[in-house]
DNA-binding transcriptional regulator, AcrR family (Parafrankia irregularis), 255 residues
Amino acid sequence: MTAPPNLPLPPNLPPRGVERALARQRHRYEDEVERLIDATFRVMRERDTANPSVSEILAASGLSTTAFYRHFPTKDDLLLTLLERAHDITRRHIEERLAAESDPVQRIAEWVRAMFDLLRTDDLVVANRPFLLAHPRLLERFPAELGTWFDALVAPLATAIADARRAAPGAPAPPAATMPSATTPAATTPSAAPTRPDVPGSDAAVDARLAMQHVFGILVDHAALRRRLEAQTVDSVISYTWRAVLAAGPATPSS
């Protein structure tokens, strides 16, 4: 008679009491993080500052210094978390506005309008001013993170620019693919993408980023001066952007 094979033992599961304790701790930590984020936003808005102190944040949140540094190694790491949420809200707003427009030229205009919606009203100026003014300092500390978020905001504009150029009258069609033959050897390097001679730049992504830098600079200037974006300014920037990225864009934006 042979001995039964050695069966693997079940993993050691923690007692239910330990699981409940860990769940309570996770819930408490999540609550602390949200309280710190909410308090920081309130302090920045109420005090009209882009750089609140840790003591102000703790007083508004009702939490201890230990709780603060349990979750964030520095105050700027907390501000970065707020900025990430603000970027995500802005990205979704841009995508929603552009999704309703089929004409790529008008999608460029909608992108500008969506960005300028950050300062469309006096209340939005108060709410978004601290985040806009905090950008330069946080960009210096966290270039990779902010660069990634900016890329996400710029991507819909780059797509609209590329689509508008392809749809423009006189735009060359992509070259037809050909099979190599005995008399036509295979190309060793890909041919350059076709470009319109009247377009100042062939790379839509580069032009979109330049447009973003222009638009964001206007946002920061208006935020610093506590000014909302007027409709006339928005329309002027749309016309300028069309001329910059399409070279022969429409003369005036349609509302």
User: Anything to note?
Assistant: The chain has two domains: 21-72, 74-168+198-255. The chain has nine helices and no strands.
